[in-house]
UniProtKB/TrEMBL annotation:
One Pfam assignment: BatD
Top-level taxonomic group: Bacteria
Signal peptide interval: 1-22
InterPro entries given in the database record: BatD (IPR025738)
TM helices/strands, residue ranges: 452-470
Listed name of the protein: Oxygen tolerance
Entry keyword set: Membrane, Signal, Transmembrane, Transmembrane helix
Electron transport recorded as keyword: no
Length: 592
């Protein structure tokens, strides 16, 4: 019963919603549409008066400043989609300007259902004659005017090692559409440390270009850290774009016919003027850090016993060139055993630069009891916002070792201070036990027993197995081709294992493939390949006397990894690139 009452209550609300929806659908619109708001003396203007309900007594404006070449022509369209009826009626005029200047096309009127509706006046600017009127432009001409590739640089006068972001945008006029594009030449960023910010999926947005409405899509984002002062060139990004340009022709069903055009667009060279870091006020211990940072030196514990270990962490956090400077080293007492530090980084790159933390973790093991002070150390960086150097100093840390042997230095110091030999108490001496508490082993002797003869004959029984195993090893050693294949598979599995897991997923696969190739060179040549571009890697392989085919194969794989961010790649192409990477690693391993 209660449920029935609820339904009764909802019926009036549902009826009201239907009425309001019907009223929205019945709303009358009457608009004036212009083919362009600026034209030359030798061009033509099309004016459409559109309404969504049939009307009578249409009264056009007088078109002051223009001559009517055609019109009015009338077109009517009706459609019924998903139960919704739509209607459109258009009166069209083709006009030619009489003189230069700014003119206003005044209101037109129409009577619909007994009411008079008026269009909104619009202003037109007429300029001198143009070289090529728009009605005579080819598809290539329209594409040239409707497609633009722009490189937006965040800062044109940065300091050395200050972050600069470059965003590549392609602006597309609403009058055209794009069916495909692919990169022709990627910038090399010489004299920069670069870090790409992947664009997962191009997202079309609305914007303006040269004061006109455009759509745009972000194709590439990169953060640059200049490594040299002076005027540096950022090479352009070039694309080959397939553009569909609408024509004045229509097909059998009334649809507009599009003309394809293939255009090459370029972002153009960009120049930035890199400023040298000021010499005034530069500290002696400055290691090249530029940005805004925090600095600390901490230990996992300060109270422990001898032979126990603790961790000392030297950490820098903040935003700046975190990967391009050296961390300061702590000054530790010589009586502490200190191991080589483990470097850790947790950084991410955004358009504002690299931010996160980098640290060195030192493992320290004290051998003797006592108190060991770790003096404070300093870290200096340059802040480009305030344009001065800032120095941060860590707190002093005291390591207190409570239990353990006394160092020889402490004993000697104590004896000299007292003027006589001192005897150290504690567990320095262990006395020999006088009662060993030995027990008899019994009458069961090993010599002559069953176990004795088994162990005696066991080497003779193992001789046939040793012979078979030796022949097997010789056969494997003699199989040169098989060994090469096994070694190639082992290296490929080591460096390309993650890429193999991502086969079928384009972006994760090519990111893992590129990282695997870089990790191989890093491990083989003891270099940091993230600081190298393709040209430097090719030069390095030439120095190592790697043959041309292997070098070209390695560079081609890196190019495919970059192109995969902008172009579709099939499962077959990914499998081919994976197989090529395995073969290239095998060839490099033999030659390096």
């Amino acid at each position: 019963m209660i449920l029935f009452k609820r339904y009764i209550t909802l019926v009036p609300l549902l009826f009201l919603a239907i009425v309001l929806k019907a009223q929205d659908n019945d709303a009358v619109t009457f608009d004036m549409r212009l083919s362009k708001d600026k034209l030359g003396m030798n061009e033509r203007l099309r004016v459409d008066f559109a309404m969504n309900k049939d009307g009578d007594n249409f009264n056009p404006p007088d078109f002051t400043g223009f001559r009517v070449l055609m019109g009015p022509s009338q077109s009517i369209s009706r459609s019924w989609v998903n139960g919704v009826r739509s209607y459109s009626k258009i009166y069209s005029y083709t006009l030619a300007p009489r003189s230069q200047g700014k003119f206003t096309i005044k209101q037109a009127t129409i009577e619909i259902a007994g009411k008079t509706y008026k269009s909104t006046p619009k202003e037109i600017e007429v300029t001198p004659a143009v070289d090529k009127p728009s009605d005579q432009m080819t598809a290539d001409d329209v594409a040239d005017e409707s497609l633009h590739l722009v490189a937006e640089v965040s800062k044109t006068d940065p300091y050395l090692n200050e972050a600069v972001s470059v965003v590549y945008k392609m602006y597309i006029s609403p009058s055209i559409s794009i069916s495909n594009y692919q990169p022709l030449d990627n910038p090399k960023y010489n004299n920069f440390w670069s870090q790409d910010i992947p664009v997962s999926r191009p997202d079309v947005k609305n914007g303006t270009y040269d004061g006109k409405p455009y759509r745009y899509v972000i194709l590439k984002r990169v953060v640059l850290y200049p490594q040299k002062s002076g005027k540096l060139e950022i090479e352009p990004l070039s694309l080959e774009v397939t553009v569909d340009v609408p024509t004045n022709q229509r097909d059998f069903f009334g649809g507009r016919i599009y003309s394809p055009a293939v255009k090459t667009v370029s972002a153009g060279n960009r120049t930035i003027d890199v400023k040298e870091l000021p010499e005034k006020g530069k500290p002696v211990n400055f290691s090249g850090a530029v940005g805004k940072f925090d600095f600390s030196v901490t230990t996992s514990k300060t109270l422990l016993n001898a032979s126990e270990s603790l961790q000392a962490k030297v950490q820098v956090s903040g935003k700046g060139n975190l990967k391009l400077f050296q961390l300061p080293k702590p000054i530790l007492p010589s009586s502490l055993e200190v191991y080589e530090p483990e470097f850790e980084e947790n950084v991410r790159t955004t358009l504002s630069g690299t931010q996160g933390t980098v640290s060195n973790n030192y493992t320290i093991v004290p051998s003797f009891r006592g108190k060991y002070p770790v003096p404070s150390i300093s870290f200096t960086y340059f802040d480009p916002t305030s344009e001065n150097y800032k120095t941060l100093t860590s707190d002093e840390v005291v390591i207190n070792v409570k239990e353990g042997p006394t160092s020889a230095n402490d004993i000697s110091a104590a004896s000299h201070s007292n003027g006589k030999q001192s005897v150290v108490t504690g567990n320095q001496f262990n006395f020999i036990k006088l009662k060993p508490h030995l027990t008899a082993i019994g009458t069961n002797y090993f010599f002559g027993s069953t176990q004795f003869y088994l162990w005696l004959l066991l080497p003779l029984l193992l001789i046939p197995f040793a012979i078979i195993f030796g022949k097997k090893r010789e056969a494997i050693a003699g199989d040169v081709v098989g060994n090469r294949i096994r070694r190639a598979n082992k290296l490929a599995k080591k460096y390309l294992s993650k890429a193999r897991k991502e086969l079928g997923n384009k972006e994760p696969f090519y990111i893992a493939l590129e990282k695997g190739l870089h990790n191989y060179l890093k491990a083989k040549l003891k270099i940091e390949t993230s600081e190298f571009n393709k040209e430097k890697i090719a030069s390095l392989l030439d120095e190592k006397k790697v043959d041309e085919s292997t070098k070209d194969g390695f560079i081609a794989l890196l190019k495919n990894c970059e192109m995969a961010r902008y172009s579709p790649f099939s499962q077959v192409q990914m499998q081919q690139d994976y197989d090529s990477a395995s073969e290239v690693i095998s060839q490099l391993d033999k030659q390096l």
